Amino acid sequence: MAYSEAKVVVGGLAHIPIVVGVFWLIQSFILRRIDANKSSGEGITPSQAVAPSSQSAEQKPLIKPKRPNVPVNTYKPKTPCLGTVVENYSLLKDGAIGRVNHITFDLSEGDPLLKYVEGQSIGIIPAGEDAKGKPHKLRLYSIASTRHGDNMAGNTVSLCVRQLQYEKDGETINGVCSSYLCDINPGEKVKITGPVGKEMLLPEDENANIIMLATGTGIAPMRTYLRRMFEPAERNKNNWNYKGKAWLFMGAPKTANLLYDADFEHYEKTFPNNFKYTKAISREQSNSKGGRMYIQDRVLEHADEIFALIENPKTYIYLCGLKGMEPGIDEAMSAAAAAKGINWDELRPQLKKAHRWNVETY
Fold first, then answer.
1. Which residues are catalytic?
2. Which of 196, 212, 229 is the last residue of a domain?
3. Is there a contact between 328 and 16 (Cβ–Cβ < 8 Å)?
4. Checking CA distances to 268, which of 34, 192, 213, 282 falls within 20 to 30 Å?
5. Confidence grade of residue 335 (pLDDT, cut at 50, 70, 90)
6. Are residues 179 and 204 in the same domain?
């Protein structure tokens, strides 16, 4: 189905209240913690990842935790890796909106082998040339498979790709790279770069709690986390046995647009003490006010449980979204913080230093 530019813009803006709502809830919880600690005479510790502008001189600033070594830029645009398409199939059910495919590439021709970890991205260079006769520029996509790949052999990588379509001057415009990938056939070669990214990496602590909020293809990194945590073959192969609590909030316009839904339902049934799966289907469900159901509405419904998890310094939050979300989020968070006499520009970096606030925008 073609999308007009207006629909594309509205679709992007529609996500702003979703993530703003989530950020507001987290901010409110943090502020309550600050007030409670002030009342009891206790200071906010580095493990709580909060450092308001009024912190005492005796309190040491947060030190950014060390990240594990991860592969970065093994392959660059001038010397890409050639991957071979293994499979390319639709992730949507009948009646869904748009087009979203799961695409897997064999990387075994690369020397060295392109290795990656959960939460990273790769670049794809579409075949052909642009209107100026120059090679197309690469596009980055979040990886949707674990480091072992869907085949568990460690030589493949998978993507979750939505085809971009919009109308301009009465003409349907197809996204260059997304259309290229959705149309590609098994056996074809693709130029791949990367991997890149350290923002969305999972903590190494097996007891960490992971709250995930995703809409659309933002589910890609979340799928990697959940496969690593709960897929039997992964659990047998990893020297990492997840024991914490994971909670996925997944937003979609229709049930038919839920991606990897059967897998997540299976994990929830198999690991009820470790995984919770909450859906927000905007065009089929209503919130408490009778409006469309979005992720922030589900978060409000489960606020007490979520806050109990956030209070634990071992809880980490992951969100995916459009880059256009950031200005709106900053504005809302700045106003909320200012009402409490806190400088959001100072508070936000402190939260990020603890790696408990992880956001990937496009």
1. 141-142, 320, 360, 362
2. 196
3. yes
4. 282
5. low
6. no
